[in-house]
Amino acid sequence: MVSGRKGQQNMLNRQHIWKRFVQNRRGVVAVEMALIAPVMISMYLGTVELQDYFTVDRKLTTLTSTLADLVTQTNKMDNAEMTNIFNASSTIMKPYKTSNVKMRVTVVDVPKTPGQPTTVYESRARNMPPLAKGAVYPIPATLRVPGEQIVVAEVSLNYASPVGGFIMKSGISVNRKYYLKPRYGNINWN
């Protein structure tokens, strides 16, 4: 009989402990925080990541338009001047690393006769190959003016996430292209 009473008492103790555990609210905050913290941290890091990506995207757009704009401000261009333009333009990307930014400026001739293909007059590049002189380069029809040139600036960057690099190891390729007409007539390349 003694063992029967101990069994009942143990069962009552277990029920009492369980009831106290369920009714106790002191640990609820810790449990809720443990469940919500990973979600909150992920949302914060995602916001930081998006902000960083949009900053890089905005800087690339500015870099591309600046490249095209600087080339169109003259009617004479040479390799030394183009190197200076690449150097000056790349400072826009600071504080981000500029060694992996690919830049290309291409001057395209639009033929006087409609229907003929537009061809590369001259092309210079940094961290990517320049286009061959005389190669066909497609220009949107709305930008073509017969007998004139179009300056095309292209910038490319493989964006590697500072926060989510362990998720996307290869990064995201961000490309920008900008078309401008030379301001002082066709560009002569020396």
Question: How would you portray this structure in words?
Answer:
The structure is a single chain. The chain is α+β, with helices and mostly antiparallel strands and 190 residues long. It has one domain. The chain is built from 3 helices and 6 strands; from the N terminus they run ααβαβββββ. The strands form 2 sheets. It has a 4-stranded antiparallel β-sheet, with helices on one face. It has a two-stranded parallel ribbon with strand order 1-6. The radius of gyration is 32 Å and the shape is rod-shaped. The mean pLDDT is 85.
Q: What are the SSEs and their pairings?
A:
Elements: H1 2-23, H2 28-72, E1 76-77, H3 79-90, E2 102-109, E3 119-126, E4 149-159, E5 172-180, E6 188-189
Sum this structure up briefly.
The protein has 190 residues and is of the alpha+beta class. Helices cover 42% and strands 21% of the residues.
Give descriptors for this structure.
single chain, 190 residues, alpha+beta, 4-stranded antiparallel sheet, two-stranded parallel sheet, 3 helices, 6 strands, rod-shaped
